């Protein structure tokens, strides 16, 4: 059971980090650096909150 939880956690982390990287990459391609920094910071805060929530749900 623990191995399955680790796999689910890893998959979720990979998906969240991939989404954050996609936001940053898209903003780098379009230009406006100030806007990019704000969006990247917001995406990282969201990822941090989701990872915290996910880890608290998985831990017994």
Q: What is the fold's blueprint, element by element?
A:
Blueprint: H1 2-30, H2 33-58
Helix pairs in contact: 1-2
Dominant shape: elongated
Contiguous uncertain segments of 5+ residues = none
Give the ordered list of helices and strands. Answer: HH
Main pleated-sheet profile: none
| Structural category | mainly alpha
**What's the number of helices?**
2
- Oligomeric composition of the shown chains: single chain
Instruction: Find the count of extended strands (DSSP E, 2+ residues).
Output: 0
The radius of gyration computed from the alpha-carbon positions, rounded to a whole number of angstroms, is 14 Å
Average predicted confidence as pLDDT: 77
Number of domains: 1
Strand content: under 5%
The span between the termini is 12 Å
Helix content: over 70%
Question: Can you describe what's shown?
Answer:
It is a single chain. The mean pLDDT is 77. By secondary structure, the chain is an all-alpha fold. It is elongated, with a radius of gyration of 14 Å. Helix 1 (2-30) runs antiparallel to helix 2. It has one domain (2-58). It has helices at residues 2-30, 33-58. The protein starts with a helix and ends with a helix.
């Amino acid at each position: 059971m623990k191995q399955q939880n680790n796999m689910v956690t890893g998959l979720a982390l990979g998906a969240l980090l991939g989404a954050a990287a996609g936001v940053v990459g898209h903003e780098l391609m379009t230009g406006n650096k100030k806007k990019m920094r704000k969006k990247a910071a917001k995406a990282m805060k969201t990822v941090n909150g989701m990872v915290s929530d996910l880890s608290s749900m998985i831990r017994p």
